[in-house]
Amino acid sequence: MLIIVAGILVFLYGLKQGKICGKAFADSIWFTVLFAYIVTETCSSMRMVNRTTIVTIWICLIVLLLILLAVGRKKNIGIVKMELDKENRGIQLFLGMICIGMLALSAISITSNWDSMTYHMPRVMHWIQNKSVDFYATSEVRQITSPPLAEYMIMHVMLLTSSDKFVCMVHGMSYVLSAGLIYSISIKMKGEKRYAYLAVFLFLMMPPAIAEAVTTQNDLFSALIMLLFFYYYLDFAYKSDLKISKEILALSVKLGTTIALGYLAKPNVLIIMAILIGYLGINKIWKKEKLKNMLFAGIVGITTAVIGICPFMIKSYKVYGSLFPSSQTEGIMVTTWDIRLLTANCYKNLAKYISTPLVPGINNFLMKVSHVIGSVFRVDINDPAISTMEFVLPDGDKAYQQSMATNPVVILLCFLVILGILLKKCEKPKLEMGMFFCTILGLLGTCMVSKWSPWKVRYFLPFSVVAVVFVCVFIGQIKNKFKWKDAFIGFIICLGLLSGYGALHYTVNEIKMQYEGDEDGQYSYFANRHIRGAYNDIEDYVEEKGFRQIGLYLGEDRYEYPLWPYLDQTERIEHVMVKDEYLQKLEDPDFAPECIVSIGMGDCELGQVMEYHGIIYRCQYLSPHGYEYAVFDAEEI
Fold first, then answer.
1. Angstrom distance (rounded) from CA 247 to CA 270
2. Of 331, 444, 563, 627, which residue has the fewest beta carbons closer than 10 angstroms?
3. Who contacts 196 (Cβ-Cβ below 8 Å, separation ≥6)?
4. Residue 83 pLDDT greater than 60, yes or no
5. What is the pTM of this model?
6. Do residues 528 and 114 touch, judged by C-beta distance below 8 A?
């Protein structure tokens, strides 16, 4: 794949420039993601988002990198040598096999989870059709307001491969690259190699990381961006003197762009980023850093971050009249400042994160504690201001679903590390301890302001990938005189294996189900929702009639994506009669669809009439699989 080849060449070019392996690795990820983002927005402004343009641009980048690598290769050939850790080859092989295995699973996985079908993948199809990533009329507002960066990468993959067969590899690669960044960050924090490998292992065994590595959800991708931010953040944290220089300018720009990319990947990462930056500022002031140097770095970073999210803000302003859509946080953020409700909400999110089927009875205990908190604070733990549904803790396989995978091992280790710090069993400088507690504060803040629902637990993955680094670095600082240290490490490895095995077992079964339920040999998008028959009916009817201009009249949160590959003979597919008052203004007044496909808008009847843009449409077909699946033909265009 051209994107992977380009990333590898950027990495090799960094090594050639004399960068250490970790820095070259981080820079290659940063450059590749930023390049894809800039290319997408630039091509979109000229309505040139198409296969020819995207393929040409990536090939040109690869050719340029090959030329740069070739120039002066004799002079710098010794630099392109990577240090091999001969003492830990067995560990490297084991971790490498896990990464390769998950990457293979992501390569064969099908985009079949609910979010992928309703807004992750449909928005990509609209962008490709429109040759632009501008806002468009849609019945599913999340196609507009949810962060787009991960889908930009997916769109590039689809355009480069002309199919959706490898779109899950975006997150499969995020899984692998995050593991590499965790190792690099651990080494950068002066952790021993074996504890750096332990951090990588615990990450690879995280249930939400395993579950999302084979989907098109964006939490694992946002975790990758969070790790990039933290890598460059450490450069500032460890710098003893912030002199105004090209180096500080470059670092500020990189940190600013990772903040922008973080917002575009998943806005909730900004909570942890903001807390860490605030701590960094306080630390530098405490060390009597020159104010003008701090202002220089801060202004450059903030300016870069704002410029990075400007394209999204401009699109939002054109449609909503505000820089950020108000609907972006609806159903996601709490709607109260009552500290009692916020505390109860924080507990509920944490309880979901640490719930597990590994310990019988733990979920019932956590539920009882929630009711005790409600009684003590005299609040309803299911208050609509902090909840979208009743508080329950799914057990069994549900603990490993893509949207609800728990992560109890990381929280347990964080708690034990806090105890170790308080009991002075860990010997780590105050700077790292401060950053660790800032990360914990970021988790608590996210838990507090995220309105509770069973699937919000995946929002905390960016926290976990940073926390696991601190955990393992601190474990390495436990005094070796304690005989229980090796036994403790063995214990957490076993916990990680058990937790990871449950998630891997669930994930493999999910992929098997995607293929076993494939009744006609084609990729099945309905492994999690058995409504395939209705879509086959619609496909057959539209193809028989030869319709090329299709209108979509869909209820909110409906499976839209399968219509795109099923109706691939059409020339144009657009949402019609959009309910959102802002997005309905984006409907094309000249669009006259030959038929309107109605799904999820209530039961229809044959002969039922609707009007759109002055044209009468009559229901001529109902699917025997359900009366909410219908096709309305235009009587005259």
1. 24
2. 331
3. 182, 183, 186, 187, 472
4. no
5. 0.94
6. yes
